[in-house]
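Running this now, will post back.
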Amino acid sequence: MSQDAAIEQHYGRPGLLDRILKSLAKQGVDGNDITIETLAPLDEFHVGGLFATRRIASRLTLMPQDRLVDLGCGTGGPARAIADISGCTVSGVDLTEEFVTTGRALNDITGLAEQVTLTQGSILALPLPDDAFSHAVMLHVGMNVADKHGLMREAFRVLQPGGRFCVYDMMQTSDGDLKFPFPWASDASFSAVARPADYIAAAIDADLALEAQHDESAGAASMLSAMPDSGPANRPDGSADPFHNLAQHIKTGLLAPTEIYFRKPR
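Update: finished.
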């Protein structure tokens, strides 16, 4: 099985929109109350959720006239949040068709369809023109992308001169073996966790300049540990809960949620 097929199999489960709407209904959220905030627990898949998205939008100092691309956008939670926060136009690309279809429906429900466009495709061959965006983000996606050099070349291609790229991924920050499962991979076969230095080297090779790096581990492990365990009955192989396992790796310093900011030279 190819890496792309393994990723789609891992993430793509039919009926996602219906599950999201049913989950919201159980919480007493009807169609008129669906907002960026009420959706956040269900469409912000990275550590820190909506809080982290707002932090990144602030660090990028986005303006309404900006155009941003979200690489590996999932169902579009961060794309919608960024559009809502800043007023800018956002394009998202994701490999998993179910995510894109669901995200488009959520764009309509939240009234953001004119600001947010989602497209199915590979972030290693973006279906987007050159020099089209003032900013780019990639939130917890690179752990499934082995070709960091190809990723950085595509980010460089679609960014305008002077454009900025924020990568926010789980990165390995000390020596040691990773013990699966994690939220992005049940085993090592389609995991591509790398060190910050690997991202930086790939970016520099693509002519992107390093601007800043932030370790966002503080509070992340305790937040993940507080999430309810899905229970062994839901894991036929008897494996560890992926979120609690990730929390343990953050606590021991093997992994860290890390933001790195790059810029395309003018």
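The beta strands are 67-71, 89-94, 116-120, 133-139, 159-172, 209-215, 255-263. More later if anyone needs it.
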